[in-house]
Amino acid sequence: MAENKTENKKTGKNDAGKNDSGKEAVLPPKSDFSEWFNSIIDIGQIMDVRYPVKGLYVWYPFGFGIRKRVYNIIRDIMDNSGHDETLFPLLIPETEFMKEADHIKGFEDEVFWVTHGGVTPLDVRLALRPTSETAIYPMYKLWVRSHADLPLKLYQVVNTFRHETKHTRPLIRLREITSFKEAHTVHATWEDAKNQVDEAVGLYTDIYKKLSVPVLISKRPDWDKFPGGDYTIALDTIMPDGKTLQIGTVHHLGTNFAKTYDIMYENAEGEQEYVNQTCYGISERSIAALISVHGDDKGLVLPPAVAPTQVVVIPVLFKDTTEAVMNACNKVVSDLKNAGFRVEMDASDARPGAKYYKWELKGSCLRIEIGPRDLEKNSAVLVRRDKGEKQFASLDGIVETVDAELKQMAEDLYTAAEEKMNAMIAPCETTEEVVAQIGKGVATLPWCGCEECGMKIEEETNGSILGTPNVETEIKKGKCPACGKEADQIVYIAKMY
Ligand SMILES: [Zn+2]
User: Where is the composition biased (Basic and acidic residues) (predicted)?
Assistant: First the structure.
């Protein structure tokens, strides 16, 4: 694997696209998705995989710049929908963690334990949170008193730890999830909590719309729901290799945790009742999704909302005209900066080809080139990262042009991704058809709804039932291939990450 430590002395930033010897590192074609992904994480300066603990990775500043903007979007959407941000401790006492039986069963194989303080064994072991229900709910018991306290809608963005035994991968399968946005809400009735689940699914869909990532939304089958919950709605996206990536889950917890942690409220009639709860989460898989869905053979293609560099200005310099061209470029850069765009100028002595390569790899959305001949015509050359075609724009009104191009780019990225995703879903009627389909995308199949048939279908197809689409689809229903009974629902089946 190409390593990547070249320091740019001037900026103190690592140079994307270079390996240790300063040579350009080569990105494999995206058709070889697994290699492409590993490579883009490295030479695209997203994460450094060389940290000496399995499943723990280090954010490069460039990758963290993307992460910061993605989480700004997430925080905005949460804050503007009545959620408050909070922060709970990382450590959970074993006594609280072990209270909810199903929850323990779901997580006990994955928990890291703190067993000692210095050399002294702890009386009560402390779990590194794998998720925070058991940290938060004992406090909710203290905080919730009456119906006037409800709904309570809190979220936090934290790291969580899971001892994954499967092959770990940056952003996708980690032992330290660095960026877990988890929300935990409390409601009076089951119906209120259900409405919150629906709202959360809508918020998550909005978040992914802003990242131009299309999603499949489905209700997970019972055997795959959150341990200790009533039901789970999940958001998945289809990766370029046809496997799906779960990029968000929303859980209706009913009164299960309320009964375990004794969270009660006084209703309007003065009676004590158990609360109903939901929880929902998004992790840095959101970043894996946006990188994978949009990227291409040249590198990152980033939606303008999250690209660290939205516009790069490249002066085309010749001896006699250097000053005039630099003046024009400086003006464009400062006008765009003043308008709030993230702009960089690349006036280095690198060859034009090397500059294009570098900024394309980094997913800069728009390249503006200005040379002496452009200046004579008072114009600039614009190249959008996703289209790669040259167009000319007048230097007057360049800010408006850039604004319009970036908006259009976000829309075009979504449309292209959605078309690609829909083309990767095929309706199937038999398990043989499913087997042929799920190597390259998602299959739909009629299912009677019984667990035994579901298990049989998963076994025969070697795939996973994602669940029942939560919106009516036009895909025709038919007979459950496992039992032959008429099925009143269809399910998505895929190979999952
Ligand atoms: Zn059946």
Answer: 1-23
**Domain segments of the chain: what residues?**
65-292, 311-408, 425-494
Q: What is the CA(468)–ligand 1 centre distance, in A? A: 14
Q: What distance in Å separates the CA atoms of residue 348 and residue 19, rounded to the nearest whole number?
A: 19
Give 418-439 pLDDT, tens digit per residue: 999 999 999 999 999 999 999 8
| Distance in angstroms (rounded) separating the CA atoms of residues 94 and 142 | 19
Q: What's the CATH superfamily of 425-494?
A: C-terminal domain of ProRS (3.30.110.30)
pLDDT reading at 283 higher than 50: yes
Within 10 A of 97 (CB to CB), how many other CB atoms are there? 24
Q: What is the pLDDT of residues 102-125, one digit of tens each?
A: 888 888 899 999 999 999 999 999
CA of 426 to the centre of ligand 1 (A): 20
Distance 479 CA to ligand 1 centre (A): 8
**Strand pairing of 464-469 and 216-219?**
antiparallel
Q: What is the DSSP letter of 22?
A: S
Region 192-212: what's the mean pLDDT?
98
Q: What's the 483 CA to ligand 1 centre distance in angstroms?
A: 4
Note the pTM of the prediction, 2 decimals: 0.93
Cβ(212)–Cβ(109) below 8 Å: no
Name the DSSP class of 455. Answer: H
**Residue 482 C-alpha to ligand 1 middle, in angstroms?**
5
The CA 481 to ligand 1 mean position distance, Å, reads 7
The candidate with the shortest Cα–Cα distance to 468, out of 199, 251, 221, 197, is 221
Q: pLDDT tens digits, residue range 340-385? A: 999 999 999 999 999 999 999 999 999 999 999 999 999 999 999 9
Choose which CATH entry (2.40.50.140, 3.30.450.40, 3.30.930.10, 3.40.50.1100) describes domain 65-292: 3.30.930.10
Q: In angstroms, what is the span from residue 220 Cα to ligand 1's centroid?
A: 17
Structure tokens at 384: 């959008």
Among the CATH numbers 3.40.50.2300, 3.30.70.920, 3.40.50.300, 3.40.50.800, which is that of 311-408? 3.40.50.800
